[in-house]
Specification:
Blueprint (H helix, E strand, L loop, with lengths): L1 H5 L4 E6 L6 H8 L4 E6 L11 H20 L4 E5 L1 H6 L5 H9 L6 E4 L6 H6 L26
Parallel strand pairs: 1-2, 1-3, 3-4
């Protein structure tokens, strides 16, 4: 998103299953002349099944994103943690891929999150895998502002 902003592109940044004061979101919100940020979640989801409120928020967000993909208003659309929503079947993978296929030709889409679905990997042009090898969160240390939050 930052590279696209530097190149003069218009960005829509959708964050799923998250809500709250994340450092990366606060900086993106300051660049609101060309970056629109939306969060679709309660802020209470971590590693368990999403709540009904989270499911509703994600589905509402996906409806909004579907329209944005077709609108031509943005050059880059980031769907942060959408892979996690797909993993928990909050959204259907076939519906998600169909939504992406309906985007305008000039629109780039970045989908992030753990557990990328094989069908999505198959249709993607670029796939990067980043995985946790070790994290002190597993030992009870909370996320630190400016590092993980």
């Amino acid at each position: 998103a930052m590279r696209a902003y530097g190149a003069g592109l218009r960005i829509f940044f959708a964050q799923f299953l998250k809500k709250g004061d994340y450092s990366e979101i606060s900086v993106l919100q300051k660049l609101n002349d060309r970056i629109q940020v939306r969060q679709y979640g309660t802020g209470d989801f971590f590693d368990e099944r999403p709540s009904e409120a989270d499911i509703t928020a994600v589905r509402t967000g996906m409806k909004e994103v579907a329209g944005i993909l077709e609108s031509g208003d943005y050059d880059l659309i980031v769907l942060d943690e959408a892979n996690v929503a797909l993993f928990y079947k909050v959204i259907d993978i076939d519906d998600f891929i169909h939504m992406l296929e309906k985007r305008r030709d000039n629109v780039e889409v970045v989908v992030t999150g753990r557990y990328a679905n094989g069908k999505l990997i198959e249709v993607a042009d670029l796939v990067t895998e980043m995985k946790e090898v070790k994290h002190y969160y597993r030992n009870g240390i909370e996320a630190r502002r400016g590092i993980e939050k």
